[in-house]
Amino acid sequence: MSSTTLMAALRGAALAAVVLVAGCGGGQTDKSGELQLLNVSYDPTRELYREFNEKFIAKWLADTGQQVSVQMSHGGSGSQARAVIDGLNADVVTLALAWDIDNIQSVSRRLPAQWQQRLPNNSSPYTSTIVFLVRKGNPKGIHDWPDLLVGDVQIITPNPKTSGGARWNYLAAWGAELKRQLHGDLTKIDDPAAAKEVAAAQAAAQKFVAALFARAPVLDSGARGATNTFVQREIGDVLLAWENEALLAIRELGPEKVEIVVPSVSILAEPPVAVVDTVVDRRGTRQIAEAYLRFLYEPAGQEIAAKHYFRPRNPQVLEKYRSQFAPVELFTVDQVFGGWTQAHDKHFADGGVFDQIYGAKASP
C-alpha cells in the first residue's frame, strides 16, 4: 500500500487536530437553532466517534425531533486536557486516562472531584490494552516484553508528556517487568515482608523502561502520530500500541504488511468520559451531553466500540466480538502503581522518573 493510500486509510489523522462530524461552530446552537456539542477526545478514537456521532445524532432526532451536530477535537490526551484547562469549551471529554480528567478538575474546577462516580465502571464505557505491532513475519522475533531489548530493535512509542497512550505504554512495560522480577506475584507489592525484594524489582523495572525509551528514535505527540510513524514512514521495528490502533492497522494495511504480537501480560487501559459541568450549564446542553455519554453504555454504543476494536463492557457484546480480542493477563494501575495520582506524581510530573530516565529531549 502506498503512503498516499495509507494516509487515506487512516482518515487523514495526522493532518488535522479537529474533525467536524456534522455541523460547525462550538456554541450552544447555530443560527438555524441546531444544537451543538463539542467532544474533546484523544487520537485513536477518531473512527469510533465518527460512527458513534452519526448514530447518536439519528437517535436524538428520532427521540426528540431535535437536530444536533457534534464537533470533534482529537490530539494527544495530555495536550487535549491542557486545552480544556486553558479554555477550550468542551461539553464532554473522552480522554485516554483518568488523570487527564482529574487534572482538568483540579486545575480549572470545570467538573466535580467525584466525576468518575457518575457513570458505570469508573466512567470508562470501554477498555483496551497495550500490544505490539511488528513487521510481517516478525523479523526481529519479538514475542514478549524482554524481546524489546534484544539486539538492535527500535521501538516506536509516543511521548508520555503529551500522550495518554504513551503513559499506558510506559506503565505496561514497567508493570510487566516488575511482575517478571517478582516471579509473577504482584501481591508482594503490598507485603511489608517483601519490601526489599520489591525495591530491587522496582529498580529493575526502571532500568528496563529506561532502556526501552533509549531505543525510541522519535517520540510523537500522540498515539495516532506514532502509528503513522511506524506504518507510513516505516520507522522502527515494533510499535507499542493501543490494541484498537494495532487492529485498525491490520484491517487497513492487511496482514501481509504488519502483524500483532500480544505479550503474556499487559495493562488494563480504561479510557474515561465525563461531562464538563461549567460548559454544559452555561450552554444549556447538560441533558444532551449526559445522553450522549449514556449512549456509549447502551448496546448500540457498545457495538460501535467493539466494531472499532475497543473492548466493550457489556458482557453480551463482548462475547459476540470475543474472537477479535486475544486473551491476555491484565494488571491495573491501582494494583501496581497505587492509582493514577500516584502514578502521575512519581512517573510523569516534571522532574519525575520519566524525565530522569529520558532527559530534556522528551519535553514537548
Briefly note the structural class of the backbone: alpha/beta
Return the string of H and E elements: HEEHEHEHHEEEHHHEHEEEHHHEHEHHH
Number of strands: 13
Radius of gyration: 20 Å
Low-confidence stretches: 1-27, 360-364
What is the 3D form?
Answer: globular
Biggest sheet descriptor: 5 strands, mixed
Helix amount: 40-55%
How far do the termini sit from each other? 31 Å
Instruction: Record the strand order, biggest sheet.
Output: 1-3-2-4-11
Please indicate the percent range of residues in DSSP E strands (runs of 2 or more): 5-15%
Mean pLDDT: 90
* DSSP helical segment count: 16
Explained architecture:
This protein is α/β, with parallel strands linked by helices and 364 residues long. Helices cover 45% and strands 13% of the residues. It has 16 helices and 13 strands. The protein has helices at residues 3-9, 46-64, 77-85, 98-108, 120-123, 164-181, 195-214, 223-231, 243-253, 277-283, 286-297, 299-307, 315-320, 333-337, 340-348, 353-358, and strands at residues 18-20, 35-41, 68-73, 92-94, 126-127, 130-135, 155-156, 238-242, 258-261, 265-267, 273-275, 311-312, 329-331. A five-stranded mixed sheet has the order 1-3-2-4-11. Strand 2, helix 2 and strand 3 form a beta-alpha-beta unit. Helix 2 runs antiparallel to helix 12, helix 3 runs parallel beside helix 4 and helix 8 runs parallel beside helix 9 (243-253). The model is unreliable at 1-27 and 360-364 (pLDDT under 50).
